[in-house]
Write a structure and sequence with these properties.
Strand content: 15-25%
Largest sheet: 8 strands, mixed
Low-confidence stretches: none
Oligomer: single chain
Number of helices: 6
Strand order of the largest sheet: 1-2-4-3-5-6-7-8
Order of helices and strands: EEEHEHHEHEEHEH
Length: about 220
């Protein structure tokens, strides 16, 4: 079972976290939640459990607005401070493990912004589940401009039907990152990697494939 913890934030209130680890992990993923649901959302729990089965510990955490139970998202400065606090807590609790950071949608975008502004200590890669390239119905690449300043490897796990990341935009965006980034497609997947029944696959099968890709990617960057 995940261990419930508290994560202090410099200049702000502490937030809740969930630390989940296999017996002998080889990395720890600092995992931020999406905009509309917190760290205990079933998708977050399934990813954490699946990564644990693959030898990767996870530290899930709440952003301050979610901790307070409000719907208004934190401003970037506050969200970035939460990302940094979670990374620091992961390093304190698992000092010998390399760290990967990122998250689902909003959590991934806030992590990438924090990394771009000032590299997160100990973080060797960024892993995104459904990077929100733009708002629904408003295709754009403005949210990707900061990615060019990131020097660590990145993995984007994206559904081809993601309304927040048009496939015709996310693919060239990743390609333009000049070998720093890798794209793993989930055919027919939406923003939450859900696939329709007509695809012939279940969400569990899709997620297993995505997590296998994540494990392979982590193993590859750790060999560098």
């Amino acid at each position: 079972m995940p261990e419930a913890i508290r994560i202090p934030i410099d200049g702000g209130e502490a937030v809740s976290g969930l630390l989940e680890s296999p017996a002998s992990p080889h990395a720890c993923y600092v995992f931020g939640h999406g905009a509309g649901a917190g760290m205990a959302h079933p998708f977050m729990a399934r990813v954490a459990a699946g990564l644990s089965e693959r030898g990767i510990a996870t530290l899930r955490y709440q952003f301050p607005y979610m901790e307070r139970g409000t719907r208004r998202h934190d401003v970037p400065k506050v969200a970035h401070a939460a990302v940094r606090a979670a990374v620091a807590e992961a390093a304190r609790r698992s000092p010998r493990l390399p760290l990967v950071a990122g998250g689902k949608s909003f959590g991934g975008r806030m992590t990438s912004q924090a990394q771009s502004a000032s590299p997160l200590p100990g973080v060797v890669g960024l892993l995104f589940f459904g990077f929100p390239l733009h708002k629904a119905g408003k295709p754009s690449i403005e949210r990707a401009q900061h990615l060019a300043g990131i020097k660590v490897p990145m993995l984007f796990v994206q559904g081809t039907r993601d309304a927040l990341a048009d496939a015709s935009l996310i693919e060239p965006t990743v390609e333009a990152l000049r070998g720093t980034a890798t794209l793993h497609w989930v055919p027919e997947g939406d923003h939450s990697l859900h696939v329709p029944a007509k695809s012939g696959r279940t969400d569990a099968q899709v997620l297993d494939t995505a997590l296998d890709a994540a494990r392979t990617w982590v193993e590859r960057i750790l060999e560098r």
